[in-house]
Amino acid sequence: xxxxxxxGFCAGVVRAIDIVEKVLQQHQQxxxxxxxxxxxxxxxxxxxxxxxxxxxxxxxxxxxxxxxxSAHGVSQDVEKEAQTRGLDVYDxxxxxxxxxxxxxxxxxxxxxxxxxxxxxxxxxxxxxxxQIDAPVHLVQSEEDVATLPFERDAPIAYITQTTLSVDDTxxxxxxxxxxxxxxxxxxxxxxCYATQNRQQAVRALCREAELLLVVGAQNSSNSNRLxxxxxxxxxxxxxxxxxxxxxxxxxDGVETIGLxxxxxxxxxxxxxxxxxxxxxxxxxxxxxxxxxxxMEFSLPARLRTPPLRAHVGAK
Length: 315
Fold this sequence. Notes:
The protein is α/β, with parallel strands linked by helices. Helix content is 36%, strand content 17%. It contains ten helices and 13 strands. Helix 8 runs parallel beside helix 9 (221-232). The two termini are 20 Å apart. The model is unreliable at 307-315 (pLDDT under 50).
């Protein structure tokens, strides 16, 4: 088995979990989190056991209660509703998602038509759509670009969901440039660094492995993209939430397995997968040479003292 490097938690996820745990430490009353703090049921259940209450709507939260926005970000309407109801808000939005919001607002103020490359219905996309005071046109593919209601010389600016496949995004951006004469936007390198690093690691992993396992939730965009990359490279590729989802039949005749984890999956889940495979037979674990991530995002100012570095379910 070859373990991808990097894999698992990114700085934005660590920050979001740290915020929930710190707020739980500071408040005796219930602490509410709007939406899953990150897309991983094991992380959510661990925080729920510590006292966090997860809701989908602010109407479920008592007036004035401590409230945390998830790492995916929220719309301005949600922010205004929280203020109107006097909720004590802690914003765990990933700073790289906030960067996309800022880019979109800047492009809108310059008079450009805004195109958001992303997946409809994803929490991050819903938040971004609601953060820009102008119409935002969502596209998911090159085919969607063909349906945009603009003339060829219209000024276009694009922004992207942070957890997309870099290659897919590059193709959509190319389609925008092919259809319109006046297009601007961030380079694909502005896609979340952690997303890029994990995708690059998986591509390298697939050149050595015969089968790919991705540990992550079914509703985790970045985890799904990792599995898709493995499939595109011709490997049997499986997205599993934990060891309980493994099928022994997958490994018949397989000698080399590549193992990675999405950015919201804790290392503890990777460990359980390794142990489950060892229960099926002899397993030698090797570590891929890859990028070492040292990025850290600071907590909100009122949570910075003393610093907290707790990784839920991780070593």
